[in-house]
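thought: fold this chain, then report.
action: predict
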Amino acid sequence: MRVGAIQLGDMGSGFTQNLIANGFEVTGLDPREARMTTSHDMGGPPAGSVAEVEGDVPTRSSWW
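observation:
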């Protein structure tokens, strides 16, 4: 299953790491390059825009 994560701060990166560890494919987006690098290092492909995250995820759903 593919998931998109926007804002990869402390909560978002933990969320992303747990999803990847459990077999999800996570596309990440954050305005800070360091957060994008961390997401990529965890195995999640980086996105260049919100539209790219949305286009990479077949079903849309939001969590806060």
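thought: worth noting. The two ends are 19 Å apart (CA to CA).
final: tokens above.
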